[in-house]
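User: Quick sanity check before I run a bigger batch. Here is a single chain. Can you write out its predicted 3D structure?
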Amino acid sequence: MSTTPACPQCTLENTYPDGSNFVCADCGFEWPQTATAEDDEDSAVVKDSNGQVLQDGDAVVLIKDLKVKGSSTVLKQGTKVKSIRLVGGDHEVDCKMDGGSFMLKACYLKKA
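Assistant: Done. Predicted structure follows.
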């Protein structure tokens, strides 16, 4: 399946990207390319519980005890996590701690 959209004028799928536009090979109609989902994901701003912007490599501190799903492990409040990585999805922060690798929500973190 092609990643280029169908022509909005003739609805045929014989289209191709040309610079910053899409072009329909059948009717010759041109229209601008819109931002892709990857661009929107990269430009999304992730903020901690205090509203500070988080970036890859930041150090954060847990503001609440968090139970690990499917385990008896608890991540304790005040635990410092170094070198976080931001990812898309519901759990925005990927990190490694003593107990393993975890995906955390930014609302339970504050920037250290």
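Confidence is low (pLDDT under 50) at residues 36-41.

User: Great, the batch can go ahead then.
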